[in-house]
Model the fold of this input.
Amino acid sequence: MNAALFRKTLPILFGYLPLGMAFGVLFTAQLDYAWWIAPVMGLTIFAGAGQILAVSLIAAKAGMLEVFVAMFVLNARHLFYGLSLLGQFRGAGWRKAYLIFGLTDETYSLLTSRTRTGERREEQRKDFLITLYNQAYWVIGCALGAWLGDNVSFDSTGIEFALVALFIVLAIEQLKSLGEQLPLWIGALAAGVALLALPPDNQLIGAVVLATIALLLQYLKRRNHDALQEGQHG
Amino acid sequence: MDDTTYIVAFIVVATLATFATRAIPFLFLGRHHEHPLLLHVGRYLPAAVMALLVVVFLARSGTWAAPAFGADALIPSVLVVALHLWRRNALLSIVAGTVVYMAIQQTQLVNL
Done:
């Protein structure tokens, strides 16, 4: 245990333990599987919102294609995290695969904000330990919550709303960091169309496809607009 | 597919999908990460996805027929929005909204 690094990850500990427990409780309340499946998911998937969505996908017995698409698009923001760490992880050897695997929102924010020396190998070793500590907190949270949910009986009707609440919170965070409402309206509208036009099994995928098409059109429109402006000025 | 096969297949697929989102930039995007289309989609897709997930799952958690008109899901949702704008504490917003939704469902407050 590296005391200085442990202190650095304390805020993540306080975030991951309760969120992991919330997932664990949700898992045992909604599903009939053994409680230890919850920490196994924390070990292999290691994604907060992803695992909470997973509970509702398992409850609905979603098909594997829908599972892949839903998990992929929910975590699509991670596609852009790696881009800022390409150089930092270069030459990390056997540690690199785990560093990439463990790149959650929280790990990303720690790794990109901490001060670094020029000693790259030493810094990569620290990155590795930070990621490892974070995942340990997450798995312990998942196990605690699932074990509690399994052994303390309570009426859990309606607990699945945690998923809706989580998505509302994440949407507000997106709005605050973007400062633009349009992408949120695009997503909401795409979902509305999918809900009205498609059977329940295809609504999620349909809405994602619609929203992506809308963003591509928006990109083309902006590019043409910029080209026009340049033509007028030049 | 029996339950055990399903959960094993599920965990494998979910693990691969999540890992793919984290590994793709290191495998493929190194050279293209300055492409404006990629930057545009990367900037706006996460927000669009969150909004569409809110709408899809909100629609599934409410009773939309009279006399509730979705109030059973909308009341806790408004609470989540208000709390989160006020305190910006994710866990507080989520727990409060869920507890209120559970209370409404379990006491049939809105659907009488």
Remarks:
- Chain B touches chain A through 66 residues (CB under 8 Å).
